[in-house]
Amino acid sequence: EPSCAPALLDRATVAGAIVRRTGDGMLARVVDTVTPQGVAAVARFAPTDPDEALASAGPLALVLVGVTDPGNAGTLLRSAEAAGAGAVVLCDGSVDPYGPKCVRSSAGAVFRLAVSREGEWAAVRAALARLGVPSVASLARGAQAYDAVDLTGPVALVLGNEAHGLPEEVSATVDGAVTIPMAGRAESLNVGMAGTVLCFEALRQRRAGDRRAEQANQLDETPPRAAGCRTT
To answer: Does residue 231 have a pLDDT over 60?
Structure first.
């Protein structure tokens, strides 16, 4: 539409996209957004299997098992990317991460992560085993406190369905599990919030480790004082 920034159209043209101009208000008829931002694109999906996604995850990956709410999935994608994760794998009937509501909730993070939406937990677990990445499940109760478990990575955080949590066949086959202790009367956290807490706990632990390493390096680089010298 005329409101689209000319620089964006120039970049699209240089990239080889076919650019078509429309009149004001035309996009509102063909896209799901109530008030579109003046530009829309059609692109072909490039499918990614779990092995490929997890291989590029870096220190942190998320595995969503049966997460069906697009708002929660989008929040998890956004939090994962913000906390330094490199991959999110959705399996066992999870929502389509490229659905309009999920894409909007992710605030674009879905396009900055390695995302796989194919396969079942068994295939994902096998991929993690091949890569030597441990899986840590989030359980509502009964596991170690989340801040007492080493999440410095590489690690894959496994989150389950909003209403039912993780199936028994999943929780019984992960490498470890954590629980977020509750001080109030709430039984559990929304899966989007629980995953966010865990993602940023993993980031906090990595940052703390980096600070300790930096301090140790600074001590190693400090020249020793000569014996018998005195500083004032």
So the answer is: no
Helix locations, the chain, DSSP H:
6-14, 50-55, 70-82, 100-106, 121-131, 168-171, 191-221
Average pLDDT, integer, range 60-74: 97
Residue 48 makes CB contacts below 8 A (sequence gap 6+) with: 114, 115, 116, 118
For 17, 84, 97, 175, the CA distances from 158, given in Å and listed in that order, are 38, 16, 16, 10
Q: Quote the CA–CA distance of 91 and 88 in Å, as a whole number.
A: 10
Instruction: Report which residue type is found at 47.
Output: P
3-state secondary structure of 61: strand
Amino acid letter, 184:
G
Tell me the C-alpha to C-alpha distance, in Å, between residue 113 and each of 106, 180, 189, 204: 11, 26, 25, 20
Q: Specify whether the backbone of 200 is left (phi greater than 0), alpha (psi in -120 to 50) or beta.
A: alpha
Could you tell me the end-to-end alpha-carbon distance of the chain, in angstroms, rounded to an integer?
71
Give CA 7 to chain center in angstroms. 30
The phi, psi pair for 91, rounded to 5°, reads -145, 175
Q: Give the pTM.
A: 0.85
Cα 232 to the center of its chain, rounded Å: 52
